[in-house]
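Hi support team,

I'm filing this because I wasn't sure whether my run with flavin-adenine dinucleotide finished correctly. The job status page said complete, but I'd like someone to confirm that the output block is well-formed before I use it downstream. Pasting the exact inputs I used:
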Amino acid sequence: MSEVDIVVVGGGAAGLSLARRLTAPAGPGRAVPSIAVIEPPTGPLSSPPRTWCFWERGEGDLDAYVSASWGRVLVRGAHREVVSDGRGHRYKMIRSHDFLPAVTAELASHERVRLLTATVTGIVDSPDGAQVTGTDATGQPMCVRGRWVFDSRPPQGLPPARTTLLQHFRGWFVRTASDRFDPGVAELMDFRTPQPARGLSFAYVLPFTRRRALVEYTEFSPRVLSDDGYQAALEHYTRRVRPLGAFTVTGCEQGVIPMTDAHFPRRRGARVFTIGAAGGAVRPATGYAFATIQRQAAAIATARSAGAPPLPPRPHPRRHLAMDAALLRALATGRVDGGAFFTRLFDSNPLPRVLGFLNGTSSLVQDVALGLHCPLWPMTRSLLELPFLPRQAAEDQGQGQEAFPHAAQRKAHP
Ligand SMILES: Cc1cc2nc3c(=O)[nH]c(=O)nc-3n(C[C@H](O)[C@H](O)[C@H](O)COP(=O)(O)OP(=O)(O)OC[C@H]3O[C@@H](n4cnc5c(N)ncnc54)[C@H](O)[C@@H]3O)c2cc1C
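And here is everything the job wrote out:
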């Protein structure tokens, strides 16, 4: 059995971001820890390729991996259109099929890192370390011991919640025959799509050039659609709502992200922590997780190099989780019209204030200012009833396997 300082289970967004941070120069007198990153062989457990979008002010540490970014955003409500200037914030896109191989290659050349191909099946905690066991690519048993273990394997189920909606989507990478897009503007939400009975739907358009874009149909609703349902929604949007003229589809992406007010554990033992989506990094009201994953990775690396226990920090402030829980409840009960809600949010607030909230970095004063532009009674009612609502398993909310993102998501890039 080999022994290292840190074992990272899962080489996806959270695992590789953490390993990357831990191998950054630690400062005078602080050695880089020895690290094992364990990722299964390509197969059914691998996370499908995906695009990660996030907001960032100015230049960032991950700019080398960014494939596109936008300085302005457009939100289209049923009756009005809002264009906002990011005032220095950019909406950045990183594609997993760029990021993961590049970071893996960087780590492979680092003398303190071992990249192991194996499927982890067990983690046994003890007061001074934890033992990670599994099966390697040839079917042989594998065992590594770490002083600290960070587990990012996607959850196989969801903890009980008061409200769980699914953010589910299918997108087309399109190439149009004529100029149809403004590559300076990310069309973040277009609510002119037919709205589902419960929850909301919108389309978004992320243009790469005047003729190439990712056009995605998204719902926040209790159930995923059938293949035909997504096909029809995208056909309707690209032919009738926002006609693209003649175009070809060069790739497709699809996914499901649970939007839930469930509690995710950050700690699973004296020496075992959960990170990434499994550790609650996904923001309940938006489905965003990538920026939070980066913040957590940086904080863990800082704690370690300071000699402190590297407990991942709380992914989201409690206040934001309460606001998100109220919004999820208001959307799920149909008390707020999602399209009108988000259009007003962008229309009535300066973009940096909205982004502060979405990024989890806004102050109480900024949140109160934001709250004043929300439909007060439905949101207050939803907030006040939260303590009296039981937490139920996703299955009991009728979602079953659909709510388990790993099983449900699928994505294929050109
Ligand atoms: C399709 C999609 C699009 C998304 N887009 C955005 C976005 O634009 N912006 C945003 O902020 N968030 C987005 N998210 C949410 C979130 O950022 C992603 O889900 C992100 O990939 C989560 O990172 P993770 O490391 O927790 O999980 P993953 O990236 O899924 O990584 C988990 C890793 O664990 C490995 N693994 C699985 N089983 C085992 C095992 N038994 N042993 C060892 N390793 C194992 C997998 O192979 C994988 O590499 C998106 C999610 C999805 C599903």
